[in-house]
């Protein structure tokens, strides 16, 4: 592994967060789940559109698995977008807000963030190259008009004529502005196409577009973006919606509309070939009457089932199991060999397996023996121990194995206090989850 990637992994783990890259180096005990998600990617690559839900309690690694899906998707040529549900800046039932989060966060192997402009350039570049191969010179006075005509033709054909007229106008104007050297204005229009509402009215007028992308039009825009992504040479698009359980904390009417929006996405998924949605959520989100179970049409579509305690991995909900002691130990041993400032042989000599086992037991004991809730705290502590050894060649690891919880999340505080880990929010005066959108 490159030093830069190893340093990134350890910096993120010090902060108690999931790394953006390098996850595969210490992905342990999830081989079957990863294989199932690869199966879904292969289906979508073949022209399907679908939704998958990652189900798991606190500490099961939902966000880790979601980030791993992004890694595997980009490795397979997909564009991706990772959206965290927030009750502050994302009203999930408003598709214009969801669209803005998805498209502004678009990522590709070539452009890690804000990739829509690069995707458009690749698509238009492909059109130009095709015209040149047909014998038309790019110096021909009619070349730009031919490009625009081909652009219109492809958008109409790819979306079955459902691409919004303002979308086509905006993309045409992006091309024209770039050809005229007005790159800043072109970039502003790309921001408009990404869902931004902060684009000057004068520029929108020049492009011939009216207002901003509305909630009712947003999914049609997403269809157009999806088709452009594929024409730009990418396999398709994977959208991760992380922490869907946040919806449970929203006001009752908003909660109901948000759940109904998920139902609409599930119902429409097959009509977006090449698009995979991946949601993460807790069992409470799926099983409580104020969550998915309260929307019968959605619950019936994605209901989770086990057969004598054994679930199918291919059902809509993919259940992630809590960490056990052996899995936590394997992750630690993987990380021990990856520290950017400790040679693997030195790390193994100074921090042998038996000491790693002692640290696993110490952290687990600190959380009342609940191994499932300890990964974040354990990994932070383990990284700190490795850091101390890297800083001081004479430091003996035996004196470093005490554990004191720090930077606790509400869930970790609940375990320490012996409280139930998940509690659904009380209902309120606005009604339950069945409110129609």
From TrEMBL:
Residues 418-437 are annotated as: Disordered. It comes from the Bacteria. One of its GO terms (molecular function) is ATP binding. Pfam families: BrxC_BrxD. SUPFAM superfamilies: P-loop containing nucleoside triphosphate hydrolases. The keyword tRNA-binding does not apply. Residues 48-361 form the AAA+ ATPase domain. Keywords: ATP-binding, Nucleotide-binding. This is ATP-binding protein. The lineage of its organism: Bacteria, Pseudomonadati, Myxococcota, Polyangia, Polyangiales.
């Amino acid at each position: 592994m490159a030093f830069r990637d190893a340093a990134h992994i350890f910096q993120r783990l010090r902060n108690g967060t999931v790394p953006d890259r390098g996850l595969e180096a210490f992905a342990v005990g999830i081989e079957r789940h990863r294989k199932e998600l690869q199966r879904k990617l292969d289906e979508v690559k073949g022209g399907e559109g679908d939704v998958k839900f990652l189900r798991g309690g606190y500490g099961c690694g939902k966000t880790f698995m979601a980030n791993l899906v992004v890694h595997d998707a980009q490795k397979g040529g997909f564009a991706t977008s990772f959206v965290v549900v927030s009750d502050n800046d994302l009203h999930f039932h408003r598709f214009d807000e969801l669209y803005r989060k998805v498209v502004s966060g678009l990522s590709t192997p070539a452009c890690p963030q804000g990739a829509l402009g690069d995707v458009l350039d690749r698509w238009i570049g492909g059109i130009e190259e095709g015209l040149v191969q047909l014998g038309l010179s790019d110096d021909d006075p009619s070349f730009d008009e031919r490009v625009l005509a081909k652009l219109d033709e492809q958008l109409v054909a790819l979306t079955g004529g459902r691409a919004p007229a303002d979308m086509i106008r905006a993309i045409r104007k992006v091309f024209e502005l770039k050809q005229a050297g007005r790159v800043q204005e072109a970039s502003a229009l790309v921001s408009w196409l990404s869902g931004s509402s902060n684009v000057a009215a004068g520029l929108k007028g020049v492009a011939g577009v009216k207002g901003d992308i509305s909630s009712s039009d947003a999914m049609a825009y997403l269809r157009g973006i999806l088709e452009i992504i594929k024409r730009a040479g990418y396999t398709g698009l994977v959208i991760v919606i992380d922490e869907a359980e946040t919806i449970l904390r929203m006001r009752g009417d908003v909660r109901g509309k948000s759940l109904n929006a998920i139902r609409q996405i599930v119902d429409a998924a097959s009509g977006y070939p090449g698009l995979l949605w991946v949601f993460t959520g807790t069992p409470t989100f799926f099983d409580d009457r104020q969550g998915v179970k309260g929307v019968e049409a959605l619950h019936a579509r994605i209901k989770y089932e086990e057969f004598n305690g054994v679930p199918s991995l291919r059902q809509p909900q993919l259940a992630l199991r809590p960490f056990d002691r052996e899995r936590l130990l394997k992750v630690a041993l993987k990380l021990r060999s990856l520290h950017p400032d400790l040679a693997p042989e030195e790390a193994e000599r100074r921090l042998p397996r038996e000491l790693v086992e002692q640290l696993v037991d110490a952290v687990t004991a600190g959380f009342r023996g609940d191994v499932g809730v300890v990964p974040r705290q354990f990994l932070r502590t383990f990284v700190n121990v490795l850091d101390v050894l890297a800083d001081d060649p004479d430091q003996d690891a035996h004196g470093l194995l005490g554990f004191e919880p720090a930077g606790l999340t509400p869930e970790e505080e609940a375990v320490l206090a012996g409280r139930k880990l998940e509690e659904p929010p009380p209902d309120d005066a606005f009604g339950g989850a069945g409110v129609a959108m």
